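Lab meeting prep.
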Amino acid sequence: MPTKAHPAHPAHPGEVPADLPEPLPEPAVADLRLETVLGALSDPLRLEIVRRLLLESEEFDHTCGWFGFDRPKSSLTHHFKALREAGITRQRQYGLERRSHVRVDDLNARFPGLLALVAAWTPADSN
């Protein structure tokens, strides 16, 4: 099923792969809560994860290793779970690994402009 390019997500793929595994449990679009989404994005590492998925992603789903963070796997697993449970990312299980992407259409429908702000954010240590 083709998807449109998103201004806040220049690298969003042109087509969703047909053979995707089902997503892990996540909130429905109607159940997305601004306070929950903002709470998840209040952590700088999670904000950076979402920003990089928006700006640097060239594939549909990414593993934790794609980011190159120097953090324990258990810590990264916690952050990715928090993003999924808040409804910001969608995760799918591929064998032993989970891959993530931002729920661009869902978030833009529920909170217009939010992802543009995330994409425009500059981490404090990159000034």
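Slide two material, second protein:
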Amino acid sequence: MDQLSYSAAWLSRWRDEITGAVNSMMSTFEETYGYEPGTNEVRVAGEEDLRAAHDYGREVLGFEDLLTFYESIGEVVLPDVGNGYFIHSARDVLHRLAEGGAGLRS
């Protein structure tokens, strides 16, 4: 199966589409669920994120798509969408790898 790689342009469009959908959902969230929503965002990568992404790329060889992702997206925090969606920042991933290695934790 051929797999397409991410591109910065594709990730930018994805971020814009998700942000638009979440903003639409948040406009009626409190009315629908009876409480205020939390912070829901797909955060653009900043300078610190870029440094961490490049550090991550040096640590984990062969993950070019993850590097591209983290160069574009700093973090995904969507606690009020479904059961919640989270993609941790590259810095957090590096911290967790340093603490516990690459194995899965329960």
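Talking points for slide two:
DSSP finds five helices and three strands in the chain.
Residues 8-26 form the longest helix (19 residues).
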